Amino acid sequence: MAAQDQVQTPTRTESSGPQLSAESDAATLAHITDYHSTRRDSSPIYAFLLGDAANPLVRFTSARKGVFTARLRLAPQHLNSSGSIHGGVSATLVDWAGGLAIAAWDLRASTGVSVDISVSYLSGARLGDEVEVEGRVEKVGGSLAFTEVRVFKVDAGTGSRGAVVASGRHTKFVREKK
């Protein structure tokens, strides 16, 4: 990964919690936060897994052109019968984050429909664990957009990224009707 493509992990301070990285863009962050809230409010599955306006579960930590990060503390609705993050939750995070990465690409108001999605499950996370989701655009063309999403377990002691929990790719049809 080239240096200009790296996303810095937010740093923590005792008084104010996570701080945005120096590479984060305020306009892009505001756009994806708003985009997320409109999608969450119109999607029962997103509201269930990511919280609602009164109880948001997702916390955005950085955003810039085509890349964003957010954190989510795992609650009972995120778990499978073995007490680990459910594969369907990881797949939903890949779907959600792929769309948000496209929205972060050029501040667009619509991110199209899914054409293909794939997820690899690499490790687990449990109740109370925090995960960091990174959505990244690989390419936005005239008809298709390609994204990569990774879900990391956050180290409770340091607040930094740990093991990759899931990695996915999401392709969307983005051509707008004329």
UniProtKB/TrEMBL annotation:
**Species in which this protein is naturally found:** Parathielavia hyrcaniae
State the Gene Ontology terms under molecular function.
fatty acyl-CoA hydrolase activity
Q: What is this protein called?
A: Thioesterase/thiol ester dehydrase-isomerase
- Protein family (similarity comment): Belongs to the thioesterase PaaI family.
Annotated region described as Disordered, given as residue ranges: 1-24
The family database entries (CDD domains) matched by this protein are listed as: PaaI_thioesterase
Q: Where are the annotated coiled coils located? A: none
List compositional bias (Polar residues) regions by residue number: 1-22
Keywords from UniProt, A to Z, are: Hydrolase
Which stretches make up the HotDog ACOT-type domain?
64-178
